[in-house]
Structures are given as structure tokens and as C-alpha cells.
């Protein structure tokens, strides 16, 4: 499988314009767009060893926090929270947000054949979470919330 180099400044700027957030630490966005493991050394640290999976874990938690804060204000039951959370962080929901916003144009990935489509969708889902995680680490919860809203992810879920 052919792999692109890490995203160039034009790709990251395009992504920043799409998500409506401009990173102070551009390496966080580069890491978020890195879908494949890469051994890139920066000083005494290895970056991208797990692609964007570490940032995606942060983004998943941030999405859960945003959903929980919205849910709490509605006085909903715990089962409502679990249902909405599952809907918001689902692969199909995040894949749709990524597709709508053409995030794939900035991602570091390559798919050779249609049989790799499920891998593509999982990469897009993971990248959306990673971008949210990167925004959180760069600018806090308000930055992450801005990115979530700009991507059109409804943290209230479709039931509300």
C-alpha cells in the first residue's frame, strides 16, 4: 500500500479552514491527520508511532464529555445519555461528518482497492476523533466544541 508523506502546510491549512479552528501547535493537527504509523523523530521523541490513534482516544473522551454536558442540562435519564452517546460517537455518524466536510482530502492515507473501503471508513472515523482531540489539547474544551459544531456533529443526537 502506498502511503503519502505527512500532510503538507496547504493540506493542514485547508483542514483548519474546514474545521474553523487554527492550531497554535500545528504538529497536533499533523498527527491527527496521520492515519498510518510513522516513525518520525522530533528531538528525543518519536511522533506518530500509532498514527492518530492516541489523539482519537482523547477525542472520543471529549465527545463523550460534550454529550454528557448537553445531556445533563436536559434532565434526561442515564439510558437516554447512553443512547445519544452511542449515536454521536458511532462510526457512521463520524464518517458522515468527515465525508460532508471532505476531511479525507487532508488525511495521510491511500486505499488501493474497493475491498479496503471499511478500512477507509474506520480511518475517517478515527481521524475525526483525532482532530477533536487535537483541538482540545491545543485550545481546550471551547476549541473542541467549536470544531464539533463546525463539523456538524449534533451532540444532542437525533432523538432531541
In short:
This protein has 160 residues and is mainly alpha-helical. It is 59% helix and 4% strand.
Protein described:
This protein has 160 residues and is mainly alpha-helical. The protein is built from six helices and two strands. Strands 1-2 form a two-stranded antiparallel sheet. Helix 2 runs antiparallel to helix 6 and helix 5 packs across helix 6 (117-150). The longest helix is centred in the C-terminal third of the chain and has 34 residues, at 117-150. The mean pLDDT is 83.
SSE diagram, text form:
Layout: H1 9-19, H2 26-32, E1 40-42, E2 45-47, H3 53-74, H4 78-88, H5 91-100, H6 117-150
Antiparallel strand pairs: 1-2
Helix pairs in contact: 2-6, 3-4, 3-6, 5-6
Features:
single chain; 160 residues; mainly alpha; two-stranded antiparallel ribbon; globular
Q: What is the SS-derived class?
A: mainly alpha
Distance between the termini: 43 Å
Major beta sheet, specifics? 2 strands, antiparallel
Estimate percent helicity. Answer: 55-70%
Query: Major sheet: order of its strands?
Result: 1-2
Mean pLDDT across residues: 83
Output the radius of gyration.
16 Å
The percent range for strand residues is under 5%
Low-confidence stretches: none
Shape: globular
Number of strands: 2
Please give the count of helices.
6
SSE topology string: HHEEHHHH
Amino acid at each position: 500500500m502506498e502511503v503519502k508523506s505527512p500532510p503538507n502546510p496547504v493540506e493542514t491549512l485547508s483542514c483548519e479552514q474546514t474545521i474553523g479552528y487554527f492550531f497554535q501547535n500545528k504538529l497536533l493537527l499533523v498527527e491527527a491527520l496521520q492515519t498510518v504509523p510513522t516513525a518520525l523523530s522530533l528531538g528525543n521523541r518519536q511522533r506518530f508511532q500509532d498514527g492518530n490513534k492516541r489523539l482519537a482516544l482523547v477525542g472520543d473522551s471529549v465527545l463523550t464529555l460534550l454529550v454528557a454536558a448537553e445531556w445533563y442540562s436536559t434532565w434526561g435519564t442515564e439510558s437516554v445519555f447512553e443512547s445519544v452517546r452511542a449515536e454521536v460517537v458511532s462510526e457512521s455518524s463520524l464518517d458522515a461528518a468527515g465525508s460532508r466536510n471532505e476531511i479525507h482530502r487532508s488525511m495521510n492515507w491511500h486505499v488501493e482497492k474497493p475491498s479496503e473501503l471499511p478500512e477507509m471508513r474506520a480511518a475517517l472515523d478515527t481521524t475525526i476523533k483525532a482532530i477533536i482531540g487535537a483541538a482540545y489539547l491545543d485550545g481546550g474544551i471551547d476549541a473542541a466544541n467549536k470544531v464539533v459544531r463546525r463539523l456538524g456533529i449534533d451532540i444532542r443526537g437525533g432523538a432531541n
